[in-house]
Amino acid sequence: MIGIYGIGGIGKTTIITALHNKISNQFPSISFLTNVREESIKDSGILKLQQQLLDDTLAIRGQLTLKIIHEGVKGIKDRLSSKRVLVFLDDIDDSRQLEHLVGKHSWFGHGSRIIITSRKKYLLTAHGMDCMYEVDKLNKEEALQLFCSYAFKQLFPGKGYEDLSNKVVRYADGLPLALNVLGSLLFRKRVKAWKIELKKLEEVPNMEITNVLKISYDGLDDMHKRIFLDIACFLKGNDVEATTTVLDGFGFNAESGINALVDRCFISISKEVIKMHDLLSQMGKEIVYKECPNEPGERSRLWRYMEVYRVLTRNKRFK
């Protein structure tokens, strides 16, 4: 079993789609289960995914009808344990999905490959992956080429758009989703429109990008949400020890919270420094801003100097 993890929009689905296209002809039985997170929350979602897995790998669509999840587990174990299969599970976000769809190595025949993507590293670790890969953001050259493929339908900026293209690439910070969305948005637009969009992005994040990133935030518990917002607004780029001291001072179990955010790909730690993707940080600030757009003093956090100054001089109280 192989686990692939990273933040939303980093390209996990693109990677396994390319992998499917490259190696699927090497396996007699194949199943590609997409959007497992979304499908699982629907009525009988897990059961339908079990049904699809068996239908795909056994080529018996319509001949076997599952009625309960336990029956599906037994069917997968009994019928696939001697088959060499290639199975993709895209966007896992709950341990029950793994347990009911690809419970153990012994469920599948020798030489099988089970490839799973998730935003939650800890789920893959707990399930006992044989190999795990974190998807890194694109480097500057890769990011520029991807952006230009959407904005100009070529791998380099159009004449007169070089500086603007580099500004967009810096803003996207190597996130393929952002490069796709912004490149498509700016396609065939004039320089003036590009400048307007870039100015807007400095203040308001693109909602199509934010909505994808926010899925993971919505799945956090209250304490982890508060720690995430504190890091996004104030503590990004600080060393772990100093950050832990600050968060502990507010009554958090900082070590547990930081580890939880690492396991969910919100932050990473490099040389004892907390790193957070720029667009995640911007999303966090936007969440706080929307607590009370018209009255900074009613928000839970303030980080802009002028807003802090105005609130304090007007004797406004924080929540």
Keyword list:
single chain, alpha/beta, five-stranded parallel β-sheet, two-stranded antiparallel ribbon, 10% strand
Distance from N terminus to C terminus (CA atoms, Å) equals: 47 Å
Q: What is the H/E order? A: EHEHHHEHEHEHHHHHHHHEEHH
Please provide the count of β strands.
Answer: 7
> Average pLDDT across residues?
95
Percent strand: 5-15%
Structural class, from secondary structure content? alpha/beta
Poorly predicted residue ranges: none
Using only C-alpha atoms, the radius of gyration works out to: 23 Å
- Give the strand line-up of the largest sheet: 2-3-4-1-5
Largest sheet: 5 strands, parallel
Put simply, the count of helices is 16
Shape: globular
Helical amount:
40-55%
Question: Could you describe the 3D structure shown?
Answer:
This protein has helices at 12-23, 36-40, 45-58, 69-80, 95-101, 121-126, 140-151, 162-172, 176-186, 191-203, 207-218, 222-235, 240-249, 254-263, 278-289, 305-313; strands spanning 2-5, 29-33, 85-92, 113-118, 131-134, 268-270, 273-275. By secondary structure, the protein is an alpha/beta fold. The strands form 2 sheets. Strands 2-3-4-1-5 form a 5-stranded parallel sheet, with helices on both faces. A two-stranded antiparallel ribbon has the order 6-7. Helix 5 (95-101) links the parallel strand 3 and strand 4. It is globular. The N and C termini lie far apart (47 Å). The mean pLDDT is 95.
